[in-house]
Specification:
Blueprint lengths: L3 E6 L3 H12 L4 E4 L3 H8 L10 H11 L2 E4 L5 E6 L14 H13 L5 E4 L7 H13 L11 E4 L9 H7 L2 E5 L2 H12 L6 E4 L1 H31 L4 H8 L23 H5 L7 H28 L3 E5 L14 H10 L6 E5 L8 H4 L4 E4 L8 E5 L20 E3 L3 H6 L1
């Protein structure tokens, strides 16, 4: 019998959180990563990112020995792959890390093991991976008689609520054999109080992409309304508030764009399958990307018309109350605005960021500060409504003519 019941491959936001939830549920878990610095920090009880509740879980499961960070893949009954699947510059899915992970697992996996891919993947990927594994196993001495089985169980979590969502959300298990599906259901049953639904692999792959594409389309509608109303000089916040009084209308909060590793990426996995048919999904992506450009243009106009020399950007993470900078539209907005000839200095205030990302750190006139500087000719730009900014509502800063809201910054802070 393998020492480990579960090995999680990739200890990023999803992987480490998954490893901790499985360990907390009673499994003996190996957490594998190629980053020795990250592994060393985890062994010492340091989370490589902010996430409520996980510090305590890490301490507990290191102490009990249910989580063991490892730099070499061990034998295990189940392997959970949680590596990034970004898009290329041409918006194609980059599955390099998934294939490398599956190939490396195959070198050590014992008979009857199952590889579960939680990473988001295009429809049909699991079946391609099965063919890839069968070819890799063919004629290889010293290997079990059959390749490991494969399943897709897409992650469904929201940064800032990882623990609650992993233990409460419904799960979809995509497997192309009943035996594999049943074994995966038994594995996950201990980790979640939500429903577990079984389907084939391509249905599970499609489900995750449809979920995030749906969210992207809804955000695009809100962002488009915010731009239309603003150009008509109508208060879009009030329009959305009143429209949402209708019992069948629920318009989301607009923002400066869409970021993160899911909603801004996953729709492309569907769009690229049938580019000529995915017109709505493509348009939603274009609208959400354009919202950032539109905000930059509006702020430039305000700066030039009012003689501002300084800018303060309130928040650069991709969403409120997390430290995740991946794909953040606010970071790109800050970088573009800092290059305006009129702007002498640009200040970033973000309580969740300890150092500027490379995109901003290399700019001499961009500074990370803890509070708003008391400068004349300063325009404050609301981008990410972290809850730590709420006490500033009483100061009147966000009600002054020297404040620009890129979306629903003030409305979200007011609750």
């Amino acid at each position: 019998m393998s020492r480990y019941e579960v090995t999680v491959v990739g200890l990023g936001y999803i992987g480490l959180s998954t490893a901790l939830v499985f360990a907390h549920s009673g499994y003996v878990v190996a957490g594998y990563d190629i980053d020795e610095t990250k592994l060393d920090g985890i062994r010492k009880g340091r989370l490589p990112f902010e996430e409520p509740g996980l510090d305590e879980l890490l301490e507990e499961n290191l102490r009990t020995g249910r989580l063991v960070p490892v730099s070499a893949l061990p034998e295990s009954e189940f392997y959970i792959v949680a590596v990034p699947t970004p898009v290329t510059e041409g918006n194609e899915a980059d599955l390099t890390q998934v294939y490398e992970s599956v190939s490396n697992i195959a070198d050590v996996a014992p008979s009857n093991s199952i590889i579960i891919v939680e990473s988001t993947i295009p429809p049909g990927t699991i079946r391609k991976l099965m063919s890839f594994l069968e070819s890799a196993y063919s004629g290889r001495a010293g290997k079990p008689s059959s390749a490991p089985a494969l399943a897709h169980i897409p992650e469904r979590v929201l940064p800032g609520r990882m623990l609650e969502e992993m233990t409460e959300n419904n799960r979809v298990i995509g497997a192309d054999s009943k035996e594999v599906a049943d074994r995966c259901r038994s594995l996950y049953r201990k980790t979640t109080r939500g429903r577990i639904e079984l389907c084939d692999s391509i249905t599970a792959e499609s489900c995750k992409l449809v979920e995030n594409s749906y969210r992207d389309v809804n955000i695009a509608f809100a962002n488009e309304i915010s731009m239309l109303m603003s150009e008509m000089e109508v208060d879009f916040t009030r329009v959305i508030e009143l429209a949402n009084m209708h019992p069948r209308v629920n318009i989301l909060h607009p923002g400066p764009g869409v970021g993160g590793h899911c909603i801004a990426v996953d729709p492309w996995f569907l769009i690229n399958l049938l580019p000529s048919r995915a017109k709505l999904l493509r348009t939603a992506r274009e609208v959400n990307d354009y919202k950032s450009e539109w905000c930059v243009a509006r702020i430039r106009q305000i700066v030039q018309e009012n003689g501002y020399q300084y800018l303060a950007i309130m928040g650069i993470t991709f969403k409120p109350d997390v430290d995740d900078l991946r794909g953040s539209p606010s970071t790109g907005i800050a970088a573009l605005l800092s290059q305006m000839s009129e702007i002498e200095e640009l200040y970033v205030i973000d309580p969740h960021v300890n150092k500027l990302p490379d995109e901003l750190a290399r700019l001499d006139n961009v500074h990370l500060v803890k509070c708003l500087p008391g400068l004349a000719n300063l325009l404050v730009v609301g981008t990410v409504p972290h809850r730590e900014f709420a006490p500033l509502l009483a100061s009147g800063i966000f009600d002054s003519e020297h404040f620009y809201d890129t979306g629903s910054f003030v409305q979200v802070l007011k609750g």
